[in-house]
Amino acid sequence: MQISRILLVAADSSSSELLAALLESERYIINHFADADEAVRHVEALGAPHLALISLAEQSAAGLEAARRLKSLVDMPLIFILNPEDLPRLSRQMQAHGDDFLLSPVQSDELEARMQLLLARLPLACYDRKRTLQINGLTIDFSRSCLRQSGKSVRISPTEADLLDVLLRNAPQAVPCQTLLSRVWSRDNVTEDTLRVHMHRLRSKLEEDPHNPAYIRTVRGIGYRFAVLPD
Predict the structure, then answer these.
(1) CA 231 to CA 226: how far, in whole Å?
(2) Within the chain, which residue ranges are assigned CATH 1.10.10.10?
(3) Contact at 8 Å (CB) between 16 and 32?
């Protein structure tokens, strides 16, 4: 099952809660930001999501500017959510920066259909992970499959690199164990025990104190999260 990462930009709590509830599915990882500038910084640091949803319900100017900046970074599908009375005023700007729009209140089946239509146009790997990341004194070099810290370099396996990639793209939010299993392993018979073993090995290479990790934190009952954003 292909997991799609969705960037949700919604300042008003009612819209964000509604959209997050409609998108509650094992097929999606939701990165929600109330602040549009923070959402753009997240994409600049960690790469593009598969699709962006931007609510224009309360802060239309900020939402449209975020859409313009996001589209300048990467050509990702983008859907606007807006109130019906705002459509005449915002129609031209939405056409310039978005791929589709929905009027509030949003219906779950319509949202799903519009998203799947846009996602179907994308290749399975619609973005490349950033090859070198700086995080405090740590360098993660995906091109050489290694970590550099305190003058030392250690190699990481392809599986460890994939785990890091998924965690970093969703930092600092938690990624469920089942999502990590789906994204990193294609086989259905891989269990959470396998995930724990690989996470232990990755922490032993990444953390100064694996028993008190600074980077990869366990989120009880959910999964794991990368707790530090790249520089």
Answers:
(1) 14
(2) 132-226
(3) yes
The tens place of each residue's pLDDT in the chain, 231 residues long, gives: 467 889 999 887 656 666 766 676 667 888 889 888 999 988 888 777 889 999 998 788 999 999 988 887 776 789 999 999 999 999 888 888 888 999 988 888 888 889 888 887 664 334 345 567 888 889 998 888 899 998 899 999 989 988 988 888 777 878 888 888 877 876 667 889 999 999 999 999 999 899 999 999 999 988 999 988 765
Evaluate if pTM is beyond 0.85.
Answer: no
Name which of 216, 143, 205, 207 is nearest 180 in CA terms: 216
CATH 1.10.10.10, domain 132-226, yes or no: yes
Instruction: Say whether domain 4-121 belongs to CATH 3.40.50.2300.
Output: yes
Residue with tokens 């460890």: 160
Residues of the chain with CATH 3.40.50.2300: 4-121
Burial 62-86 (b: 16+ CB within 10 A, else e): bbbbbbebbbeeeebbbbbbbbeeb
